[in-house]
Write a structure and sequence with these properties.
Aspartate Aminotransferase, domain 1; Aspartate Aminotransferase, domain 2; Rossmann fold; 4 domains; eight-stranded mixed sheet; six-stranded parallel sheet; 28 strands; about 40% helix
């Protein structure tokens, strides 16, 4: 039985593949991250296999040398040296059965159950599954547009301690397509040596940068240079394990790859019981791939593959731009432009969930599918990953048009997006119309807000520090044709200094919107109110969506309890028992935060107490009610934030709790709050 592949070429249909991929005429499955049939060099593999099998040495079929047979490693090192641009020595290579096999071997031999692993946020979703298989604890670290956020990594080292390994896809990252520059790689290697953790670099795309881009050095090379500069012996001081593979540069079914690392790391694998028992991994396939290298088949195929991938990626990006504009969604949907690899990451409006869009496409038979971003990290729930490796250009264009149309239809039927107006799609504020500044961006929350703005396309967001002379004035004087917005999460004194400098610029500049989430015992409210008379200013005690809902619930509960007849006698009331001021119900508030939280109780707790006071006072007649509601402020480890209202009555109890499980929720909320403030028509001081 024969069939047609996505390019119209006839081939014999067998059950070799991991799953069946439909032709573009039926369904474009952008989830498929594998090469097309036309990109599988069957003729070249056949030619290399025939040449290898003409050899007469029967030891080719023997248990292989554990690290790979020397001739293969010698020619592999030559191939890598040519394509990396720097020397790779055979002694620093170890043959594996691919990146997945190498990663599993690393987890089994270099890590143990319960070990801590850092990974990027987002990260390759199946690596997360592998870490789960080995019962490893994974903490994900924020990314910048150029890869891992080094400041966030330093903060994680303080907060979570030293990991056993940091896993990174540094080149043509999956799913973002981002590439980490040499400078960041050098900083990461330095931190690995300083804190004594291993870097596991998944370099499956290291050789797949598009032809017009020069990829950075692989991590093993970066570490060699680091050791040389520090006067260290690289082969006894290694912390970096580069994992390479032939899956994407030749063929996945070969199940062949390599480690590139210092001898002290490779020796662990060499001396392991599992490899002592099995011998070298895939020696027969190694022989065939060896021939592919020496006969020039591998290099020819690699060159053709990178060009094909660029042609497809370029065509897909062009069609996405055209189709998004044609459907009127070009200002609410964007995508990252990769420097190589297999994937493009698309950003939907922040309020959406890509999995809902996917279900909409499936239920509505829209003829297109993709991989929702939540698989890679919780911060990517509004994103989707598109693969351009499988379908030919015509198929990719069909998929792009179907996707754009589906997004438009989903927008017009989506009740929770907050973007729909009337019969059409209301366009989000274009990222190039607003210039954001983050004051306090070096702190934990400030760094998250800065990264969130970058993710939303505000890549020119400015890190502001009022302590630097001229920084605020320079920000206001830059790009005056754009609207300026400042989000402040510094300190009470920092906010006061910021407002003083902003007011000093009044007259010569349009003053920016100012959103502050700064809390403290003595906030400069007078300054904020003064600023609100000439510009828009907002104070938020909490940037989450849940806390306002919690306050509404508290108001409702207190109001209803006020209506209940009291069984408490006047003599009992005279005992002044804290909390017995709403019928027979005792009230207590608790809040939990991390140990670095300075104000206690928190600004949010004060808002909760105020909400209770406002709605209870009319029936209590006690002007000191607020002071008499116990409020416990706990500082525990790295707690993100938890607030609970306890109401205890005769034989029953009510608890209203809000828990923030990730700090990113506050970053998202800060940006959402800033956008809300920008929509207000007049100046004023707001408090939420």
């Amino acid at each position: 039985m024969s069939s047609l592949d996505v390019n119209g070429k006839e081939f014999q249909k067998c059950s070799y593949g991991q799953y069946t991929v439909p032709p573009a005429s039926e369904f474009v499955n952008f989830k498929v991250g594998q090469p097309a049939p036309t990109m599988l060099p069957l003729d070249g593999i056949r030619e290399a296999s025939v040449a290898k099998m003409q050899e007469t040495d029967p030891l080719y079929l023997q248990y292989g040398e554990i690290s790979g047979y020397p001739e293969f490693k010698k020619d592999l090192s030559g191939f890598l040296t040519k394509n990396y641009g720097t020397e790779v020595l055979p002694k620093n290579l170890f043959v594996t059965n691919g990146v997945t096999g190498g990663l599993c071997m690393t987890c089994s031999l270099l890590l143990k159950s319960g070990d801590l692993v850092f990974a990027e946020e987002p990260t390759y979703f199946l690596a997360k599954s592998i870490f789960k298989d080995f019962n490893l604890k994974v903490v994900q670290i924020a990314m910048d547009p150029d890869g891992l956020n080094i400041d966030a990594l330093k903060e994680a080292l303080k907060t979570h301690g030293t990991p056993k390994m940091l896993y990174t896809v540094g080149t043509c990252h999956n799913p973002t397509g981002r590439t980490m520059p040499n400078s960041k790689r050098e900083a990461l290697v330095a931190l690995a040596h300083e804190h004594n953790f291993m870097v596991g670099a998944d370099e499956v795309y290291q050789l797949l940068s598009f032809p017009q881009f020069t990829p950075p050095k692989c991590f093993a090379q970066i570490e060699q240079e680091y050791c040389k500069a520090k006067g260290l012996d690289y082969n006894t001081s290694g912390h970096c394990l580069s994992l390479g593979s032939f899956s994407k540069i030749l063929a996945p079914a070969l199940r062949l790859g390599w480690f590139h690392a210092a001898s002290n790391m490779l020796d662990i694998f060499e001396k392991s019981g599992q490899l002592d028992s099995s011998g070298g991994l895939n020696p027969v396939i190694s022989g065939i791939v060896h021939r592919c290298i020496t006969m020039g088949i591998q290099q020819k195929h690699l060159d053709a593959t990178t060009q094909t991938l660029w042609n497809r990626a370029s065509a897909l990006m062009s069609e996405l731009e055209t189709s998004f504009k044609a459907e009127g969604i070009d200002e609410m949907v964007r995508f990252e432009k990769p420097q190589g690899g297999y994937f493009i990451l698309v950003f939907l409006p922040k309020e959406w969930k890509a999995k809902d869009l996917l279900q909409f496409c499936i239920d509505g038979k829209k003829g297109v599918g993709f991989l929702p971003g939540a698989s890679f990290g919780q911060n990517l729930q509004h994103c989707l990953r598109l693969s351009f490796s499988y379908y030919a250009i015509d198929g990719l264009k069909i998929g792009a048009r179907r996707l754009a149309k589906a997004i438009k239809e989903f927008a017009n039927s989506n009740p929770y997006s907050g973007i729909i107006k009337g019969d059409g799609v209301a366009k989000q504020e274009s990222s190039d119309k607003v210039l954001y500044g983050v004051h306090g961006s070096k702190g934990r929350l400030g760094s998250l807000i800065f990264n969130q703005l970058q993710t939303l396309g505000h890549t020119d967001t400015v890190r502001l520090d009022s302590r630097v002379e001229g920084a605020i004035a320079n920000f206001l004087n830059s790009e005056k044709e754009r609207k300026h917005v400042i989000i402040d999460v510094s300190s009470a004194s920092g906010l006061e200094s910021l407002i003083d400098q902003l007011l000093a610029c009044q007259g010569s500049n349009d003053l920016p919107d100012l959103v502050t989430g700064t809390t403290g015992i003595t906030l400069p409210r007078g300054h904020m109110e003064a600023y609100g008379k000439v510009a828009r200013c907002l104070l938020a005690s909490n940037f989450s969506l849940g806390v306002p809902i919690m306050l509404d619930l508290a108001k409702t509960v207190v109001e209803k309890l006020n209506l209940q007849p009291s069984l408490v006698t006047e003599s009992e009331k005279a005992k002044n028992i804290p909390g017995y001021y709403i019928g027979d119900w005792n009230i207590e508030v608790t809040e939990e935060h991390h140990t670095k939280k300075k104000d206690a109780p928190s600004g949010t707790a004060k808002r909760i107490l105020k909400a209770i006071e406002t709605n209870a006072k009319p029936n209590t007649g006690d002007p000191k009610f607020l002071d008499k509601v116990p409020c416990q402020a706990l500082r525990l480890g790295d707690t993100v934030g938890k607030h609970t209202i306890y109401l205890a009555g005769p034989g029953e109890r009510i608890e209203i709790t809000h828990s923030a499980t990730k700090r990113d929720v506050f970053a998202v909320g800060a940006v959402r709050t800033a956008k809300w403030l920008a929509q207000q028509n007049s100046t004023g001081f707001h408090e939420i």
